[in-house]
Write a structure and sequence with these properties.
With 404 residues, the protein is α/β, with parallel strands linked by helices. Helix content is 46%, strand content 14%. Bound molecules: uridine-5'-diphosphate and alpha-D-glucopyranose.
């Protein structure tokens, strides 16, 4: 049985004839949260959309498997290599590449009604495309636009381009929307549409599979915490490691990989586990495709972002798996979890607070169960795939109606 969150076939909301023709643009070849979300969205427009990627990789394969037309337009290295904290010189070196890429994308755009940029780099390129091809542009904003993440020049560039060339910004949380406005983005452009995740793959997990997975962890009946997410300093996996010596007998599964090149941090985490004497209780599983099963097999899900998490799909996934979720306060997290009602919120970068929260849940299974059940209900009600798709459709229809 396949338990991938994106393996559930879903029906397009409208028949293809009446579906708007959308050209989706994404810079990534690998699967991050933004790519999982776009996979769900593009699948609903399959037949009337195409996805252009600026890098090849597993994302292209997943889109193809889902029946979505996809093409790779490899970005020049000077463009793909620009980091979020790039220097002015690096940015200037990328300009010619961005314009070249925009001209190539514009050729594709002629056949579509609307351009949909999934993230910031695609938006920068698409801003020029929208102008060249005279098409409306939606920017699905999935990043927190603050100086903690971006250079000031990038913040200025992103908001200025958006203010001039973007018809609608879809923010993945109110926190993300607010950061956009705080950075100079026009408030009238932004609408929040939360991520939504299908519950079906979580419901499909059987107790036999859970028992087999637990056996594979090889930890007997010891408590197991799941820390799901890519390995990156701002995701804060080091804080959970810091807490581990104070949580005797507790094991942690770190599920995820350094997909955006944070390998040095991954190495540091392993060294930290050894230095803290917890290497036998910290298990690095790398990138996994069976998230619903793994989430169902752990005792709780802990998310330790040390900077504002824009949304955090893993929180909702933990709730769908009926697990108590402990998460750091910041960004979109408090919009998903109400402290002590549908999960626990702790301050970021605070290992002691994590120890108290995790220890408390382990010592009090009834309260852990109460939070898990409440979280499950919230995830079903407020973060369903249907709600995401309906929200996106509403924005697409509105933008097209205004453009006509
Ligand atoms: N994920 C996965 N395999 C892994 C680690 C993560 O499939 O080994 C998925 C996870 O289930 C979630 C997404 O990657 O759907 C991460 O999204 P999130 O919004 O939590 O964080 P992002 O990486 O986008 O910042
Ligand atoms: C980004 C954000 C994450 C969010 C995802 C989907 O990758 O880091 O918080 O859940 O996009 O919108």
């Amino acid at each position: 049985m396949n338990t991938n969150p994106d393996s559930v076939p879903s029906q397009p909301l409208k028949d293809n004839k009446s579906q708007p023709k959308i050209l989706f643009i994404d810079h990534a070849g690998v699967m991050g949260g933004g790519q999982y979300s776009l996979l769900d969205i593009a699948r609903h427009f399959a037949g009337s959309c195409k996805v252009l990627l600026f890098a090849d990789g597993p994302f292209r394969e997943r889109l193809q498997q889902a029946g979505v037309a996809v093409e790779v337009l490899a970005a020049p290295r000077k463009v793909s290599g620009v980091s979020r904290q790039a220097t002015l010189l690096q940015d200037l070196r990328a300009v010619a590449g961005v314009l070249h890429l925009a001209r190539s994308v514009a050729k594709h755009a002629r056949d579509y009604d609307l351009i949909y940029a999934n993230g910031q780099k695609p938006m920068v390129v698409s801003a020029f495309v929208a102008r060249l091809a005279n098409k409306p542009l939606i920017w699905h904003l999935r990043d927190t636009l603050t100086v903690q993440f971006e250079s000031r020049l990038h913040l200025w560039l992103a908001t200025t381009l958006a203010n001039c060339f973007v018809a609608r910004v879809i923010a993945n949380s109110k926190a993300t929307a607010e950061a956009f406005v705080q950075s100079g983005g026009r408030a009238d452009l932004v609408q929040t549409v939360y991520n939504g995740i299908s519950v079906a793959p979580f419901r499909a997990v059987t107790s036999e599979q859970v028992a087999a997975a637990r056996q594979q962890f090889g930890v007997g009946s010891a408590p197991v915490i799941g820390a799901f997410g890519r390995i990156a300093p701002w995701k804060g996996q080091h804080v959970l490691l810091e807490a581990l010596p104070q949580l005797p007998g507790v094991h942690v599964l770190f599920v995820g990989d350094a997909i955006f090149g944070e390998d040095a941090y991954g190495k540091k985490l392993r060294e930290q586990a050894v230095a803290l004497g917890v290497a036998d209780r910290a298990h690095f599983l790398g990138f996994r495709q069976d998230i619903p099963l793994l989430m169902s097999a752990v005792d709780m899900v802990v998310h330790t972002a040390v900077e504002a998490e824009p949304f955090g799909r893993v929180l909702v996934e933990g709730m769908l798996a009926r697990k108590p979720v402990v998460a750091t306060r910041g960004g979109g997290t408090p919009e998903i979890i109400e402290n002590d009602v549908s999960g626990l919120l702790v301050p970021p970068s605070d290992a002691k607070a994590l120890v108290v929260a995790i220890g408390g849940l382990l010592a009090n299974p009834a309260s852990a169960q109460r939070l898990a059940e409440a979280g499950h209900a919230v995830a079903l009600q407020r973060f369903s795939l249907e709600a995401l798709l309906a929200g996106v459709m509403r924005q697409v229809d509105d933008v097209l109606a205004r453009h006509r």
